[in-house]
Automatic annotation (TrEMBL), chain A:
Lineage of origin: Bacteria, Pseudomonadati, Pseudomonadota, Alphaproteobacteria, Hyphomicrobiales
Protein name as annotated: Amino acid/amide ABC transporter membrane protein 1 (HAAT family)
Family per record: Belongs to the binding-protein-dependent transport system permease family. LivHM subfamily.
GO biological processes: amino acid transport
Membrane topology: Multi-pass membrane protein
GO CC aspect terms: plasma membrane
Compartments, as annotated in UniProt: Cell membrane
Automatic annotation (TrEMBL), chain B:
PROSITE patterns, per the entry: ABC_TRANSPORTER_1, ABC_TRANSPORTER_2
Single Gene Ontology MF annotation: branched-chain amino acid transmembrane transporter activity
Family indicated by similarity: Belongs to the ABC transporter superfamily.
The ABC transporter domain, residue ranges: 5-237
Biological-process GO terms, alphabetical: L-amino acid transport
UniProt-listed SUPFAM superfamilies: P-loop containing nucleoside triphosphate hydrolases (SSF52540)
UniProt keyword annotation of ATP-binding present: yes
Domain of life: Bacteria
Family matches, as Pfam families: ABC_tran
UniProt cross-references to CDD domains, sorted A to Z: ABC_TM1139_LivF_branched
Swiss-Prot/TrEMBL keywords: Amino-acid transport, ATP-binding, Nucleotide-binding, Transport
Protein name according to UniProt: Amino acid/amide ABC transporter ATP-binding protein 2 (HAAT family)
Top-level taxonomy: Bacteria, Pseudomonadati, Pseudomonadota, Alphaproteobacteria, Hyphomicrobiales
């Protein structure tokens, strides 16, 4: 039983990271109705920026908000410069843009910082939270920070006018325009916020998975699984899905001997396929019905 | 009476398909103008053209100001509220959030909550449904919500697209009574598009008949209503 509880708690900690990635994916999906698979690479690039600032001697707690701010601006810029102009283009154009972004960020990071794996120190310290604790200091810190950020985001969408406008723009863009919401600006904000959340996930997970240009590949896959599980139309569902994926991943790795550490990633794919077969809209998602 | 909305030579198209072929019409300050016509005549497109959600050419003046080149968001800020066809509510947001969105272009303040209370006094049903998702409301309630949301803008001109759409006659009657009351109280001007011609002609002061993108007849609503020939050939009742 102890082992079970330990694994669930540990699952929660990584689940928080998946929840962030899932949320980032869903926010962009809500804005443009495409899955941005460069999301992980954008987060990875942000993480490198953070590492660089740390290497230059900036204090960790200054690096955090600074990198998130830079990522926000970067996401907004990407939306304005490359996504906006192909707004009405077919799906394939979007796919090509995402592949391009993926390749650009991946190679740029390798070019600037090299492909060798870099350790990243944890701001929360090494070792167990307390002697015999189920999770380490870093995992605990990760969980606390993601919970705070996710709560702030929830409050933002629930209680602020900008948050309400962003939701309106994604639910019904035409009506949103008719009440005076600047839909394209809201989409830009969505990209900016998604990038900032991705940066947060990258910075938090870097001490665990180490820093290298491909570090976010598996994380993003888990994020996708979380987003699909919770429902691509529901930010809350995505967060929930992210946590569930984290827990399931940990439990499966522990209790199903065949899976172990190596096959863990396939759980994400298995989940995606299973959800799409059984409940395509996800746990909290709405099925979209299109009037023709 | 001066015109709050003047439209001259309005043309609009979807891609290659021309839908409006040079419409001229007016809405008097504080008056109600009805656009009548069969399905596909271009009524909805006319409203879209005014709000700039479809590509348009020609001259559109609102309160003397040219608006045909403005983006939708700026046109809304001038005080033009559209009640879209099929209601266009924000289905997954609550009734109250929908109302807040109607006032999105106004500065945030206490009078917004006062206006929401006012909407609730006009439509008590909406108050009962205030924290319910708009998509779960009945057709009539959603139409009320769409009208209430438009009122939240404190509009100078309301564009109403088929307020009777898909509603039972009793509810339609109720909606029109409320619209008449709103007009009496706030003096807002209205441009209303309707398939239900007899209903619209009783409500409106002026009426225009559209057929395949052109105006074929115009005049005072009560005169058109009583014209047997018009009734037989265009209105079908």
């Amino acid at each position: 039983m102890d082992l079970f509880i330990h694994q669930v708690i540990a699952g929660f900690a990584t689940g928080g990271i998946y929840a962030c990635m899932a949320l980032a994916v869903v926010m962009i999906y809500q804005a443009i109705h495409h899955l941005n698979f460069a999301q992980g690479e954008m987060a990875m690039f942000s993480t490198y920026l953070g590492w660089q600032l740390l290497a230059w001697g900036a204090p960790y707690w200054a690096v955090f908000p600074l990198v998130m701010a830079i990522s926000f601006a970067g996401g907004l810029a990407i939306e304005r410069i490359v996504v906006r102009p192909i707004e009405n283009a077919p799906v394939l154009s979007h796919v090509v843009i995402f592949i391009a972004l993926f390749a650009i960020f991946n190679s740029a990071a390798g070019f600037i910082w090299g492909f060798t794996i870099k350790p990243v120190p944890s701001p929360f310290g090494e070792g167990a939270l307390y002697p015999g604790a189920p999770i380490g200091k870093h995992q605990a810190g990760m969980l606390v920070v993601t919970m705070i950020v996710l709560s702030l985001l929830w409050a933002f969408f629930r209680f602020t006018r900008v948050g309400l406008s962003m939701r309106a723009a994604s639910v019904n863009p035409e009506s949103a325009r008719l009440v005076g919401v600047r839909v394209s600006l809201m989409n830009g904000l969505g990209w900016g916020m998604a990038s900032a959340i991705g940066a947060l996930a990258g910075l938090l997970i870097a001490p665990v998975v180490f820093l290298e240009p491909n570090m976010m590949l598996s994380i993003l896959l888990y994020g996708f699984a979380g987003a699909v599980l919770g429902g691509l139309s529901s930010p809350l569902g995505a967060v929930l899905g992210g946590f569930i994926v984290g827990i399931v991943e940990n439990l499966a790795g522990t209790y199903i001997p065949v899976i172990g550490g190596e096959l863990k990633l396939s759980i994400a794919l298995f989940l995606i396929v299973a959800v799409l077969l059984v409940k395509p809209a996800g746990l909290l998602g709405r099925r979209t019905v299109q009037r023709v | 009476m001066s015109a709050i909305l003047e439209v001259r030579g309005l043309e609009a198209s979807y891609g290659d398909r021309t839908v409006l072929r040079g419409l001229d019409f007016e809405v008097a300050e504080g008056g109600v103008t009805a656009l009548l016509g069969a399905n596909g005549a271009g009524k909805t497109t006319t409203l879209r053209a005014i709000c700039g959600t479809v590509r348009r050419r020609g001259e559109i003046r609102f309160a003397g100001k040219r608006i045909e080149r403005m983006p939708t968001e700026s046109i809304v800020r001038l005080g033009i509220a559209q009640v879209p066809e099929g209601r266009g509510t924000f289905a997954t947001l609550t009734t109250e959030e929908n109302l807040h969105l109607g006032a999105m272009t106004r500065p945030n303040g206490r009078d917004i909550s006062l206006d929401i209370e006012r909407c609730y006094s006009i439509f008590p049903r909406l108050k009962e449904r205030r924290s319910q998702q708009a998509g779960t409301l009945s057709g009539g309630e959603q139409q009320m919500l769409a009208i209430a949301r438009a009122l939240m803008l404190r509009p100078k001109l309301m564009l109403l697209d088929e307020p009777s759409f898909g509603l039972a006659p009793m509810i339609t009657k109720h909606i029109f009574e409320i619209l008449a009351e709103v007009k009496r109280e706030s003096g807002v001007s209205m441009l209303i598009v309707e398939q239900n011609a007899s209903l619209a002609l009783r409500f409106a002061d002026q009426a225009y008949l559209i057929e395949t993108g052109s105006i074929v007849m115009s005049g005072e609503a009560k005169i058109i209503r009583e014209d047997e020939g018009v009734r037989a050939s265009y209105l079908g009742y």
